[in-house]
Amino acid sequence: VPTPDSARLERAQRARERLARVVGGDPHVTGVDIGAEPAPVGEPTVVLRVHVSRRAPPGKPAIPKQVDGFPVRIVPADYRLE
Amino acid sequence: MSTIDASTLREAQRARGKASAHYLRNPRVTLIDVGWRIRDGAMTDELAVRVHVRSKPRGPEAEAFMAQRPELAIRKERIPFLVDIIEATYPLHWHIGLPQPPLRGRVFDRLHGGISISSDRQLTYGTLGGIVLDGATDAPMILSNWHVLAGSAYARSGLRIFQPGTGDGGGPRHVVARLDRHAMDMGIDAAVARLTGSRDWVNDQIELGPVRGVTQPSLGALLEKSGRGSGRTSGMIDGIEGEYAIRYGGLPRRIRHVCRVVPASGTEGEVSRGGDSGSWWLELENRRAVALHFAGSDDPETALAISMPEVLAALQVRLALGEAVEPLPERAYA
């Protein structure tokens, strides 16, 4: 699996921190992280991901479509200790 | 007695299932299990499917029995594994107790990664991740989750740690370590417990082998772990640098430096389940420790784990790699 270059990941990390400050306080947000999606050519696309509880009301929380040029994806998921 | 490798054990378990299907309704049969073959009253090191019967005719008596009651005969060829027929009956003792726990839930006379553990505050079990060395004193310590080794804001240093965990029948006879310190105040669900010296330890993850080092989680990395809950499982990192809100006893806590592990492309297997907390995710190929498992989800099937370099730095410990030692056989004496 190709790995995104480290400079891009560092920028993504700063963008993730900004995104976490924006949405992290919402009780329906279960997590914020960095993921990757395959691109048609070359390195994968780095994306930011907001994990949202399946119990969240439709349309909640409000999530930006992109941060600092990185697309934001929504991942429906609830996590528990194991 | 030799160590059982996992594939042989699985083969024996499958054969035991076939033996049960054929013979558990046979009125001669009192028990069918998997264990060491017994010859001349002594245990051997051969793993066998053991069919326990009320009476075991021998010599001419056996031939007569086979001729008269062929439907009650135990035919070894129907069981695809070494078969041992044992004469024994088991009267009820009227004792209500827990069923025998699986291998990882038993007492180990050498501590490995991947086995059952808990503090004495909890009626459950998590996983003993592995052994680390105190950065200041080199004292050997268990590294697992805070919620496995402490689990309460009231837990104090010195709390007793049992192997196996209380959920597997562990108790005051099974103290192997005492809680030392944790990193929850840094958003890292990790803790270390200082070994008491009551048992030896080895750099070995059950079914995986020794840990070879430590490395950062990276997108797409293929991993394996050995945990008390789901045993040996594998997966792929699809998210890094995560910050997750997880409920601890009803209270949300923010956990940082999290990577997410999902089934690798083209697979649908289980990644983790309850009881795996504290296990270490290792690189599939190089066996370097990548992350400390602590949470997960069944829908979608995912595991959450904390970056191992961050865990080690927060707790000021390093992996006890040492020389890989051939693990001794496990001995269940609980």
Overview of the molecule:
The complex is a heterodimer of chains A (82) and B (334). Chain A has 82 residues and is α+β, with helices and mostly antiparallel strands. Chain A has one helix at residues 6-23, and strands at residues 29-37, 45-52, 66-67, 70-76, 80-81. Chain A has a four-stranded mixed beta sheet with strand order 1-2-4-3, covered by helices on one side. Chain B is mainly β and 334 residues long. Chain B has helices at 6-23, 59-68, 146-149, 308-315, and strands spanning 29-39, 42-53, 83-87, 110-113, 115-119, 126-128, 130-134, 140-144, 160-162, 175-182, 191-195, 200-205, 213-214, 222-227, 231-248, 251-262, 280-283, 288-298, 301-307, 317-319. In chain B, a hairpin with a 2-residue loop joins strand 18 and strand 19. The model of chain B is unreliable at 91-97 and 330-334 (pLDDT under 50). Chains A and B meet through helix 1, strand 1 and strand 5 of A and strand 15, strand 16, strand 18 and strand 19 of B. Strand 1 of chain A pairs antiparallel with strand 15 (231-248) of chain B.
Features:
A: 82 residues; alpha+beta; B: 334 residues; eight-stranded antiparallel sheet; six-stranded antiparallel barrel; 12% helix; 40% strand; elongated
Topology of this structure?
The complex is a heterodimer of chains A (82) and B (334).
Chain A: H1 6-23, E1 29-37, E2 45-52, E3 66-67, E4 70-76, E5 80-81
Parallel strand pairs in A: 2-4
Antiparallel strand pairs in A: 1-2, 3-4
Chain B: H1 6-23, E1 29-39, E2 42-53, H2 59-68, E3 83-87, E4 110-113, E5 115-119, E6 126-128, E7 130-134, E8 140-144, H3 146-149, E9 160-162, E10 175-182, E11 191-195, E12 200-205, E13 213-214, E14 222-227, E15 231-248, E16 251-262, E17 280-283, E18 288-298, E19 301-307, H4 308-315, E20 317-319
Parallel strand pairs in B: 2-3, 4-12, 13-18
Antiparallel strand pairs in B: 1-2, 5-6, 5-9, 7-8, 7-20, 8-11, 9-10, 10-11, 14-15, 14-17, 15-16, 16-19, 17-18, 18-19
